[in-house]
Please model this.
Amino acid sequence: MIRSFVIPYTFSVIICAYTEERWNDLSSCVASIRNQECKPLEIILVIDHNKVLWERARTCFTDLLVLDNAYPQGASAARNYAIEHARGDLLAFIDDDAAAAPDWLKQLAHEYDDPAVMGVGGRVLPHWDTGRPAWFPEEFDWVVGCTYRGLPDVKAPVRNLICCNMSLRREVIDAVGGFQVGIGHRNGVPRGDEETELCIRARQHLPNRILIYEPAAVVLHRILRFRTTLKYYLTRCYLEGRSKAVLTELVGSSEGLSSEKAYLLHTLPGGVLRGIWHFITKFEPAGLGRACAIVAGFLTTAFAYIVGRLLNLFRPSIGLSTISSSIGARVSRSKV
Model:
């Protein structure tokens, strides 16, 4: 029997779903939140432009607040719609194909005892349907939405959190606005950086506050077979590069690429050398495969980033005007 813990904060847990194909995963996700040691105030499930799924969800999940996204299609706008309806002091986000450990919310909540902490995220571990491909480098686990080699192994301040396992104070969202519409996942297309942009914007607006990565707060992210192919890997790298081009236009290159510089200078060379070393000393062909995958992933991402920056030169500035309109009239702009 799971023991229940009481904390001096209330959590609104937000799940975004868009397809019936993930129904079993969604059910597992909901069950993992229901079984938390630290009970949330509410679980909000927002359905992104799928009336059939919305009808099924509101019939089956009667204890949840099930919303039909009234904003434009996409994960960012859908989360903004859920935020508008949330009542908790802390807003926690998890993907519909992930499942949280029983102490997930409790581990996140501990860090909020420090008033300087405006957000907390945790470790996202891959749960491979068909096992991790031998060639797939841990340095690129972000391709499948998971914690990757190069992030801290212990609790530490970070630039941004991963949206599959992140939380923010409601007052921070009220102060800086929600997710930027126009970037991020939409209709299953795995674009990224919506959480990165939000976290950077929060740090710029509240420079004396910090974001904490707490690896003890764990969720498992299911990785389907189609995400283990080289085609998916390179496609996701390309989309990430294009997303980074948009991100740097929004927040500036210094902020937008601050973590990527250390990743490029230290993490990736270390991964290449490690793979080659395993190939030479352990006669492990997959080691050479991982080294090649790192190089291919970097080159694809860098090429896409350059393409994106060049395209940005020939279109109007993206700006941040869509943020306030997408969040809804209820979000206040009170000071934190």
In short: The domain at 11-327 is CATH 3.90.550.10 (Spore Coat Polysaccharide Biosynthesis Protein SpsA; Chain A). Confidence is low (pLDDT under 50) at residues 319-336.
